[in-house]
Task: inverse folding
């Protein structure tokens, strides 16, 4: 079995055409605050991925991609520490020049080697390239009702 399917922390590369299809841009500020604060409450002051206590949690939207039907579906909203969030969004982190810290965090949280981290990043990039071939994604945020 592919060990990467058991990682607690994963690289989540959003298709380029979906970069601005996020809840924060779709909801009013009051709605977004309610959604993110509910995630923070569920987290109990700890990152929902690495478990580290954090005085500054960030809301992260988890998406699933149905490539056959071109649907980007909201799966979850989790509260994460800044280090996990930077790792999840490794593409953005690389552009900012902070990739090494994110890669180290990935290895630490997952207890994996550099080679395993690079393999997981390669798989994430492969998924990203394939998903970028979908001309237009439909957005399904029906699960949002579970987070309001």
Result:
């Amino acid at each position: 079995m592919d060990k990467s399917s058991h990682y607690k922390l994963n690289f989540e590369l959003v298709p380029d055409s979906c970069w601005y299809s996020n809840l924060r841009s779709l909801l009013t500020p009051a709605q977004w605050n309610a959604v993110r604060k509910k995630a923070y409450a569920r987290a109990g002051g700890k990152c929902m991925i690495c478990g580290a206590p954090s005085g500054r949690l960030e809301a992260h939207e988890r998406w699933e991609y149905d490539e056959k039907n071109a649907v980007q579906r909201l799966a979850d909203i989790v509260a994460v520490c800044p280090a996990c969030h930077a790792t999840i969004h490794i593409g953005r982190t690389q552009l900012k020049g902070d990739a090494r810290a994110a890669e180290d965090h990935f290895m630490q949280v997952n207890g994996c080697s550099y080679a395993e981290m690079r393999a997981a990043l390669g798989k994430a990039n492969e998924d990203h390239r394939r998903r970028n071939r979908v001309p237009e994604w439909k957005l399904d945020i029906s699960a949002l009702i579970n987070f309001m």
